[in-house]
Amino acid sequence: MASPRLETYCCPNRDAATQLVMDFQPEVFCGVCIGSASISLLLTILQLLPKKGQSPRKMPKASSSSTILLLISICDILGALGMIFRSSVWLGFPGFIANISVVNGTDVWPSTFCVGSAMWIQLLYSAGFWWLFCYAVDSYLVVRRSAGLSTIVLYHMMTWGLAVMLCVEGIALLYYPSLSSCENGLEHAIPHYITTYAPLLLVLVANPILFRRTVSAVASLLKGRQGIYTENERRLGTEIQMRFFKIMLVFVICWSSNIINETLLFYLEMQPDINEMPLKNIRSAALITWIIMGVLNPMQGFLFTLAFYGWTGWRVDLKWRKREIPWESLSSSTVGENAYPAPVNYQSNIHDSKKISTTDSQQTDEAISMLSEGNTSSDERLTRSSPIYQGW
């Protein structure tokens, strides 16, 4: 699981709340993390592999949205690998891990492993949060026709730059002036927790707003494409809205337990003695949500692929043929082939007007298809309703 408590545990003089959750059935907890991360890792890779039975049509140029979705999955895969490695070492070498608690110990490798593995997990999942925010921004810009593959460079700079900066800053403040003297007060821990949960809270607050505005813009595009709002357009808009809803639902399911757990642990830290009887229910709730985090955090990768693409099936095509990304509309070459030429007696102004209208409609179709990659049935409806398909 991904929690700033992992870095806090690397402090020999850790707080009582962190000690409470980290000492609660550590073997069971690590086993849960390994099991959940392994299942999510395997199913995520299975979802992303090409499948048999798919039509070997020519693959169109990838969109920025599809690239972002792939990068989110890669961050989840690498984060799950970090959880598996960390938990495996935790289970396999208990004596090695026990040296973390030794103040002024001479062996620096246990603390190095503790800090390094915790930073790896935090950095990858934090980058995934930033990529998810970029996906919401890109979706809105796509329907406004202000985004493209060129903007992916800016997304890379923002995502990795902010993820690394916040991670390093939080760790530096937590372990200042040294690892043996960290956690001497909340002034060390609070900046670390803020830098960890800032991108998570940003996604929870900003993404629903951006998704809502994107859905409204999509409805306007679909209405303006032919001047009417048919059943096909209504269904397509509903499916895009449902896709955004699934993405946010997965995110809330996987990470709401972290917010609840952190709130409970901070409340316990404010108490003079967390072992008092009146706090028993708070301690129990904190421990329960701690185990839930170990199950749900690693499962984000697989659940996101379900929200992005749906279930892609078990039949893997190991021939690695190029496959078409679903939901990509007709390429510009289709228009250039003049499959539906205008009569030669058309006046030039009418021809130019229809050419501009066809181009605008094609750009609208491309914008909609980028937002709804992964649903073949809706792709067929989009193609049939397009002016190119109708021989406009």
Walkthrough of the structure:
- The structure is a single chain.
- This protein is mainly alpha-helical and 392 residues long.
- It has a single domain (8-50, 63-309), classed as Up-down Bundle (Rhopdopsin 7-helix transmembrane proteins).
- The protein has 13 helices and no strands.
- Helix 7 (152-174) runs antiparallel to helix 8.
- The longest helix has 41 residues, at 186-226.
- 39% of the residues are buried.
- The chain crosses the membrane at residues 28-46, 67-85, 119-141, 153-178, 190-211, 244-267, 287-311.
- It is found in: Apical cell membrane; Lysosome membrane; Melanosome membrane.
Record the SSE blueprint.
Blueprint: H1 5-9, H2 16-22, H3 26-48, H4 64-92, H5 94-98, H6 109-143, H7 152-174, H8 186-226, H9 231-269, H10 280-309, H11 332-336, H12 348-371, H13 376-385
Helix pairs in contact: 3-4, 3-10, 4-6, 4-10, 6-7, 6-8, 7-8, 8-9, 8-12, 9-10, 9-13
